[in-house]
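Please go through this chain and its backbone structure tokens and walk me through the local backbone shapes. Keep your notes short.
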Amino acid sequence: RLLHNALAWCEKYHLRTIVDLHIIRSHHFLMQAPPLWTDPAEQDKFIRLWKDLSAELSKYPVNRIAYELMNEAVAPDPEMWNKLIERTVAELRKTEPLRKIVIGSNRWQSASTFDQLRVPANDTNIILSFHFYHPLALTHYKAGWTKVGEYNGPVKYPGITVEENDMKGLPEDLVQALRYENGNFNKDTFLIMIRKPLHLADSLKLPLYCGEFGCLPSAPREMRLQWYKDMVSLLEENNIAWANWDYKGGFGIVFKGEPDKELIKILTGVTVQ
């Protein structure tokens, strides 16, 4: 009932909906050694779960609701995820040949791993999805659940996110985490970083969707807003559908109960009174 109530609310406000498996018992994107990849019974259960969801949701119009098989798959080998995609899509197509199915690449739907994604052949009702949170030292500034979030020194955007001088005296593991993705970032470098999903979508003539992007409000305000301006214009210029992460959560456009009017204007073009 809760799911149907949520879908009815979306319909009332003319919102298209993606139903995804964000967290399941056998897998989520931060789980250590998720059994989904090593236990065939868990893979069978995953497919049955989608068959059950399909049976429940197939009555909804295909132009209103899509299915996303899983949020941010993190398999030890990308072929494990490719095979599970293939099996699950094949089962769903037996009863719902026209339903849009959203799939992303292995390892957090990173744009960098899109060349490892194998898309079911000759299926024109697939939507390709990637997530984008680069550079992490900016977008996850002071985020308690990441190693780079332990850094609270100066950051910069656009430009070199963390200068080498600002890493002096930091623990070695934190320095390594910062250096892993440190660089000179701007809108042009972001375009280079999303070339793989752009190429795959173009070669298969499939729509491309940035299903998550966001920058925490703990990041310096002007840098955060510039990052969003660059991301939105980049996605729009390349005909990539998008949804920011998120609404009222840690990255939200509503923060501590108040709408972020400047950010909403950047994302929607609408001025909030």
About this structure: The chain has a mean pLDDT of 97. The chain has nine helices and ten strands.
